[in-house]
Amino acid sequence: MSSTEPRRTALDATHRALGATMTDFAGWDMPLRYGSEREEHVAVRTRAGLFDLSHMGEITVNGPQAAELLNFALVGNIGTVKPGRARYTMICREDGGILDDLIVYRLGDTEAGSPRYMVVANASNAQAVLDALTGRAAGFDAEVRDDRDAYALLAVQGPESPGILASLTDADLEGLKYYAGLPGTVAGVPALIARTGYTGEDGFELFVAPQHAVELWQALTKAGEGVGLVPCGLSCRDTLRLEAGMPLYGNELSTALTPFDAGLGRVVKFEKEGDFVGRASLAEAASRAEQNPPRVLVGLVAEGRRVPRSGYRVVAGGAVIGEVTSGAPSPTLGKPIAMAYVDPAHAAPGTEDVGVDIRGSHEPYEVVALPFYKRRK
């Protein structure tokens, strides 16, 4: 296979047998949709959906100084993450620009008693994150290992997902909190069972060896038959996370923004011990944000039917006041929605006379607080 051909997940033949529309995403051939993306979206909101997320980038970090390395390499305080828990964090450049947003799982210890972590990067940034962690590991007694080929990743999301998974495992799902993970067996397959989600619904992620992916997919499909589980592609995953107000790297996050520019300064932990990459630049960004607040990430709901897209300008009173980062029709709201960075003066929910420039026509939009959708617990 030439290096220009997209990579295929262990479930590739399964997706094709189900008639999926495939697309190249971050160098992977991935299912975009199986039928109607709207129906897949609604299934996750009301019943359950099954996703192949094997394109995500898993990087194992272990060794006596694994925690110290991650505290230096990332902006969060990873040393305080207890075994079995996970943390949302970011890796930044020296200038404070966001290289990627990450989830870090604190797994059990190695046989030698050293802490073990799994860093999960976005598919489009996995190599850059691996390279940065490897470079930043110099001088630390810790190992950074590329484990992207060691895992397939399946996710079952939606209100019926706890029941579906409970029928296949004796793991303590009740005790598995949000942003946690535990080793277990699902349908006879050894798995890391996580509960971190990216849809706004309850759900689980299952990290398994690639050779077990097909049998696990089939077991989950069978277990979900009676409650309306459907296979879901990347298209509905995007509208689900948009409704839930969750940022997507390349849209809401980029190297041009610091966490403070993105309204996510809370993930930067200046109080942790020692230096970390980007500390000085991020301190300046935090101070700058206090004195001169950056643009604010807000929700926009259309009054009409035209859909805003990434890069469209947000306008008010004839002036450009911001830019759309993500936009799509919302199956849950029944209207087009968007996330956009706008000037603080126009960021308050209910702000009127805001529009989006859609091919020269200023379409009216209402500013709303994020997220657009929040599940009932």
Give a description of the structure:
The protein has 377 residues and is an alpha+beta fold. Helices cover 20% and strands 32% of the residues. The protein has eight helices and 20 strands. It has helices spanning 12-17, 37-46, 66-73, 126-136, 161-166, 213-223, 234-243, 279-291, and strands spanning 7-8, 21-25, 28-33, 48-52, 57-62, 86-92, 98-107, 116-121, 143-146, 152-157, 181-186, 189-194, 203-208, 229-231, 296-302, 313-316, 319-330, 335-342, 354-358, 361-368. The strands form four sheets. The protein has a six-stranded mixed β-sheet, with helices on both faces. A six-stranded antiparallel barrel has the order 15-18-17-16-19-20. A hairpin with an 8-residue loop joins strand 12 (189-194) and strand 13. The longest helix is centred in the C-terminal third of the chain and has 13 residues, at 279-291. The chain is globular, with a radius of gyration of 21 Å. The relative contact order is 0.15.
Helix-strand layout with pairing:
Blueprint: E1 7-8, H1 12-17, E2 21-25, E3 28-33, H2 37-46, E4 48-52, E5 57-62, H3 66-73, E6 86-92, E7 98-107, E8 116-121, H4 126-136, E9 143-146, E10 152-157, H5 161-166, E11 181-186, E12 189-194, E13 203-208, H6 213-223, E14 229-231, H7 234-243, H8 279-291, E15 296-302, E16 313-316, E17 319-330, E18 335-342, E19 354-358, E20 361-368
